[in-house]
Amino acid sequence: MKGGEKVKVAIIGAGSVRFALQLVGDLAKTSELSGTLVTLMDINEERLNATWILAQKYVQELDADLRLEVVPSLPQALEGADFVINTAAPSYPDRYDLVTAIGEKHGYYRGIDSQEFNMVSTYSYVLCSYYDLQLALNIAHSMEKFCPHAWLLQTANPVLEITQLLSKYTQVKAVGFCHGFSGVYEVFRTLGLEAQAVDWQVAGVNHGIWLNRFRVQGEDAYPLLECWIAEKSHLWEPSNPWDVQLSPAVIDMYRFYGMLPIGDTCRNGTWKYNYNLETKKKWYGKFGGIDNEVERPRFHEELRQSKQKLVDLAQEVKKDSSLKLTKVYPELFSREKLSGEQHIPFISAITGHTETRLILNIPNQGAIQGIPDDIIVEIPVWVSGDCLRREPLQPDLTERIKYMYLLPRILRMHWALEAFLSKDKRVLEEILVRDPRTRSFEQVQEVLQDIMSLPVNKEMAEYFGYS
């Protein structure tokens, strides 16, 4: 694609409201993408209409040259698209709450989806994320028909499993996106470093990345971290449940693996940090992180309220066109500040504008030594004019990271895809048989049967042959 050509961006799952509006805002503030057509699509009509109303108003207030449209069907959204952003999350969050409760009833603290190296709440759903994988596969196959040359920007979780599935079993150009790498900036701020002065890299898999390169003025900067650990780490306190980047769990993982875990990686550790709420508070601070029985339900309720707030705001805008979003809700509807998401910089770079360094999920192809070439890894990538150039990793990740963290996590990805592709419920059972919380095979069968008996899981139950 050459610079100057008009671009079509389809946002699937635009009923997420807030996230879709962030993307629209970033597009509106990116002058080289003026004239872009943004197509919004979601099956939730109320939230889709709210996004539509607020997006139009936001673009108007920014005086931006963007064309917006809302369509009711996937084929219409995809027809002629250059970029497709999949942010649709069919399992999130209500299904998770139900499944977690059933899991705990059967002795699985925080539900059956809390697994070693995959502890992040709501990342996976019933071990194989059936609904999320099925939707992503349907979108990709539709893209093969309606926009075969488009890029798919996979945003909805599980990013690792979905991007791997699409990379191997479809012809679409799929790239996984996550903002977890931004945890590096918290590290830099804490150590008193200006981000632009730091030479850094992260590498691993989604929600499992590590600070392999950390240099300032050509010198190793890890001694600065060691100094902070020795002198100040005991003073660390989280400001909120998400604030875990320099928690005791992170320092402990750094000591064991030899490099600093970044972003959500520390939430994806072993049971050592996650046996119960008391254990979580020891390692993640006074809130116990976000992945526990107190903070996660609270967050889900905040999400529901936040979405309803935006739906209500859309109705206010509809009634009173003089209302200014940039004044009544500036933290979301900013006039100048970008969201920090990588999607629009990616689109800008691909369409022939400035070469851009991003942290993306793409096939390894030799980037991380010892990891198969076809495995989706999260690494620094230079993006320019339809080309993705992997940045050489220097230094390499430690052997412990690769063999005691990444490969076990990659195996879990393979197990999830094996369950999904084979439709064999015995794979789900086998995953749980290997769970340290399991005490009998009957426990495994009973928890899965109860989960599959939920009305919201009817389609999945039929897929795996549950009666």
TrEMBL record:
<keyword id="KW-0326">Glycosidase</keyword>
<dbReference type="GO" id="GO:0004553">
    <property type="term" value="F:hydrolase activity, hydrolyzing O-glycosyl compounds"/>
</dbReference>
<feature type="binding site">
    <location>
        <position position="178"/>
    </location>
    <ligand>
        <name>Mn(2+)</name>
    </ligand>
</feature>
<dbReference type="InterPro" id="IPR022616">
    <property type="entry name" value="Glyco_hydro_4_C"/>
</dbReference>
<keyword id="KW-0378">Hydrolase</keyword>
<dbReference type="GO" id="GO:0005975">
    <property type="term" value="P:carbohydrate metabolic process"/>
</dbReference>
<feature type="binding site">
    <location>
        <position position="207"/>
    </location>
    <ligand>
        <name>Mn(2+)</name>
    </ligand>
</feature>
<comment type="similarity">
    <text>Belongs to the glycosyl hydrolase 4 family.</text>
</comment>
<keyword id="KW-0170">Cobalt</keyword>
<keyword id="KW-0119">Carbohydrate metabolism</keyword>
<dbReference type="Pfam" id="PF02056">
    <property type="entry name" value="Glyco_hydro_4"/>
</dbReference>
<dbReference type="InterPro" id="IPR015955">
    <property type="entry name" value="Lactate_DH/Glyco_Ohase_4_C"/>
</dbReference>
<keyword id="KW-0520">NAD</keyword>
<dbReference type="GO" id="GO:0016616">
    <property type="term" value="F:oxidoreductase activity, acting on the CH-OH group of donors, NAD or NADP as acceptor"/>
</dbReference>
<keyword id="KW-0408">Iron</keyword>
<feature type="site" description="Increases basicity of active site Tyr">
    <location>
        <position position="116"/>
    </location>
</feature>
<keyword id="KW-0479">Metal-binding</keyword>
<dbReference type="InterPro" id="IPR036291">
    <property type="entry name" value="NAD(P)-bd_dom_sf"/>
</dbReference>
<feature type="binding site">
    <location>
        <position position="157"/>
    </location>
    <ligand>
        <name>substrate</name>
    </ligand>
</feature>
<dbReference type="Pfam" id="PF11975">
    <property type="entry name" value="Glyco_hydro_4C"/>
</dbReference>
<dbReference type="InterPro" id="IPR019802">
    <property type="entry name" value="GlycHydrolase_4_CS"/>
</dbReference>
<dbReference type="InterPro" id="IPR053487">
    <property type="entry name" value="Alpha-glycosidase"/>
</dbReference>
<feature type="domain" description="Glycosyl hydrolase family 4 C-terminal">
    <location>
        <begin position="202"/>
        <end position="438"/>
    </location>
</feature>
<dbReference type="InterPro" id="IPR053715">
    <property type="entry name" value="GH4_Enzyme_sf"/>
</dbReference>
<dbReference type="GO" id="GO:0046872">
    <property type="term" value="F:metal ion binding"/>
</dbReference>
<keyword id="KW-0533">Nickel</keyword>
<keyword id="KW-0464">Manganese</keyword>
<protein>
    <submittedName>
        <fullName>Alpha-glucosidase/alpha-galactosidase</fullName>
    </submittedName>
</protein>
<dbReference type="InterPro" id="IPR001088">
    <property type="entry name" value="Glyco_hydro_4"/>
</dbReference>
